[in-house]
Amino acid sequence: MSSSKPRIGIIGTGAIGGFYGLMLARAGFDVHFLLRSEYDAVAARGLQLNSAVHGAQALFPVQAYRDAAQMPPCDWLLVGAKTTSNAALAPVIAQAAAPGAKVVLLQNGLAVEDALRPLLPESLHLLGGLCYICVHRSEPGVVEHQSLGAVNLGYHSGPALDDAQRQALTEEGSALFKAAGIDSAAVANLDQARWQKLVWNVPYNGLSVLLGAGTTALMANADSRELIQAIMQEVVDAATALGLRMPENFIGKLMTSTDRMPDYLPSMYHDFAQKRPLELGAIYEAPLAAAAAVGFEMPSIRALYQALRFIDARNQG
Amino acid sequence: MSSSKPRIGIIGTGAIGGFYGLMLARAGFDVHFLLRSEYDAVAARGLQLNSAVHGAQALFPVQAYRDAAQMPPCDWLLVGAKTTSNAALAPVIAQAAAPGAKVVLLQNGLAVEDALRPLLPESLHLLGGLCYICVHRSEPGVVEHQSLGAVNLGYHSGPALDDAQRQALTEEGSALFKAAGIDSAAVANLDQARWQKLVWNVPYNGLSVLLGAGTTALMANADSRELIQAIMQEVVDAATALGLRMPENFIGKLMTSTDRMPDYLPSMYHDFAQKRPLELGAIYEAPLAAAAAVGFEMPSIRALYQALRFIDARNQG
């Protein structure tokens, strides 16, 4: 494990994996990309980033792989795949990992690390990554980046011996992103960070599918605004019931920052439009279960979740 | 006012007005139909009913009017128009009414009589009618009747002096329907009857629009079933908070009877598909307000209402 020049593997090269992988590669890191359906396109034409923040960027050739067995052992593995495929990815991650590697789940939702942990070798460190970014994939190998970009990391589990070592590892990961020009912070409490991220993801992801609308339309209508705020309040109240603290006036801040964003269609909207399974387990089911476990109900979120399950079942055939 | 052979006026000849008006006319009552956009079609071709219960029925010629001023004074006025046009209809109703006429709102929702009452002459009796029927209009003057058909009536307000007189008038109205082969009962508490009807209307009307689905699809999916039951429970709990009693195991009975119904698209679905305003005031806003007035919240229903308001605003242009 070379901390000066670690080797980075990207597991799942969609919008998130493509964006961060390309930025890290362009910053001089040795980055290896695992792909499935987009392998041919990326091997032939490379990765392209159209970024409102960083301009147009390209990476060619790309160190691209169809099979994790052919990847060199990676010190850091960034998982940008959908949470819906995590269980199937566990052996792939293990295969691409150098001894003592750090695996970072750049995913939304709750308890995604808990679900993956028992499927990974104990020698691997597992971290969560919260991406504050507006990004989507417009075609194979092409990533559109509209705004933001920060990644906050938190340690989940693994062989780190004490809090200081966990913090050091997390900061080491954060430093990789910062070296690539990306804002990043190490957070001490991953669970708190995941709940904080849910306050945005729970309303906007689901409502974009249910109402077929991006953030601009959802923010422009008084009723959907109220609904968004009511849903956010349920998430904040659930987090509080779980003993987690949200930032002061957090809902007001999220509303303001969303008002200032360009029109954005969250990832669940794209998943729905492309008939992929929706990430309902990580973004709805796990938070509902965690809250229910301490006796806290989130009735509007449960209603939204049930409506989305109906839509997802129909959309999947 | 002749109680032996009352003259009946139908205000708003859509699916509900068309069905009951045609059935009453075919039973020998003197029925006069007020129409707007469908006047030409009905004057030229009459009314047609395709009923799974009563077979194919036709009424031709039809005593049809464009203008209430040309209608003879009616002893009973059955209002089958959308609740969204009630305020505009008040002068029309007054114009078509014989002295001491009985006005029956054959409409869904809550507080529709409260809203209309101050706009009507004090000399008119106002009743509410709850229609338990699966019916829709397939084209101008053509009504499709899938199942059921009962109408329960309750006295709201007017010159009736005491409970006995109110009850007698209500039973007189009920008898008209029964004479036309339609099940009908006089109910003592209109508010209770309206809340009881809401237990079905609140989930199915809104979800048919939100999820683009009829009763069969909504009942076949475990998640939408749970959502329907949760919404029904909120209505039942709100009614209870208002001091009203729902029948024993009412939700279970409604689920069973809906399971046995042919696939049905509620009226709100048709309103949405035809870009008419949705009846959100009567079916959602009024119950939410009535419950809130006694400190009872219905969070899933409020979320559904806000989502529907967003959809309705977009649908109206």
Automatic annotation (TrEMBL), chains A, B:
Keywords from the UniProt entry: NADP, Oxidoreductase, Pantothenate biosynthesis
Instruction: Please report a single Pfam family linked to this protein.
Output: ApbA
Q: In which pathway does it act?
A: Cofactor biosynthesis; (R)-pantothenate biosynthesis; (R)-pantoate from 3-methyl-2-oxobutanoate: step 2/2
Quick one: a GO cellular component term? cytoplasm
- For the keyword Electron transport, the answer is no
Q: Which GO terms describe its molecular function?
A: 2-dehydropantoate 2-reductase activity
Q: Which GO terms describe its biological process?
A: pantothenate biosynthetic process
Catalysed reaction(s)? Answer: (R)-pantoate + NADP(+) = 2-dehydropantoate + NADPH + H(+)
Question: Where would I find the Ketopantoate reductase C-terminal domain in this sequence?
Answer: 189-311
- InterPro entries in the record: 6-PGluconate_DH-like_C_sf, 6PGD_dom2, ApbA, KPA_reductase, KPR-Related, KPR_N, NAD(P)-bd_dom_sf
Q: Where is the Ketopantoate reductase N-terminal domain?
A: 8-157
Q: What class of enzyme is it?
A: oxidoreductase
Known EC number(s)? Answer: 1.1.1.169
Q: Does the keyword Cytoplasm apply?
A: no
Source organism's superkingdom? Bacteria
Which PANTHER family does the entry link to? 2-DEHYDROPANTOATE 2-REDUCTASE, PROBABLE 2-DEHYDROPANTOATE 2-REDUCTASE
Q: Which family, according to the similarity comment?
A: Belongs to the ketopantoate reductase family.
| Physiological role | Catalyzes the NADPH-dependent reduction of ketopantoate into pantoic acid.
Q: What name does this protein carry? A: 2-dehydropantoate 2-reductase
